[in-house]
Design a protein that fits this description.
five-stranded parallel beta sheet, single chain, alpha/beta
């Protein structure tokens, strides 16, 4: 069974950069890319994959990141899968961070300005979730 990284971001440059960083830190998991929350939600509802983590941007067309997380929380099946969900954004506003955590997000990270900082952040996130035991990892 696959355990892909689900990346939800409409910015092609950010997706490519993140893919490069993940390769550099040794992440061998496949990636599923979605340009909006609606497409990601459709995938999550039907896939037999066990996604390792969802990395989601905030501002996207059709369905933004907070709307996606809200829909996951409303869906018993998806909520009970407990797929780690982290926001990854260029902007951080206190109200947005509060709402993200209110929706049970497991992290809110700033898109770092340098490759090295991005690599450090992603390394920390992936080391943590690789070691962590959670419902989606132990099924």
């Amino acid at each position: 069974m696959r355990d892909p990284i689900v990346l939800v971001d409409d910015d092609t440059d950010d997706r490519d950069l993140l893919a490069e960083v993940l390769e550099k830190i040794g992440q061998k998991r496949e990636m599923e890319h979605f340009e909006n929350g609606r497409d990601a939600l459709d995938y999550l509802r039907v896939t037999t994959d066990k996604p390792f983590i969802i990395i989601c941007d905030l501002n996207m067309p059709i369905m933004n990141g907070l709307e996606l997380k809200r829909e996951i929380q409303r869906d018993d099946y998806l909520r009970n899968k407990s797929i780690p969900f982290v926001f990854f954004s260029t902007a951080v506003a206190p109200t947005t961070v509060m709402e993200a955590y209110h929706l049970s997000s497991q992290g809110f990270f700033l898109k770092e300005p340098s490759f090295r900082e991005l690599e450090e952040t992603m390394s920390l996130i992936f080391r943590y979730w690789t070691k962590c035991k959670h419902p989606n990892a132990v099924r």
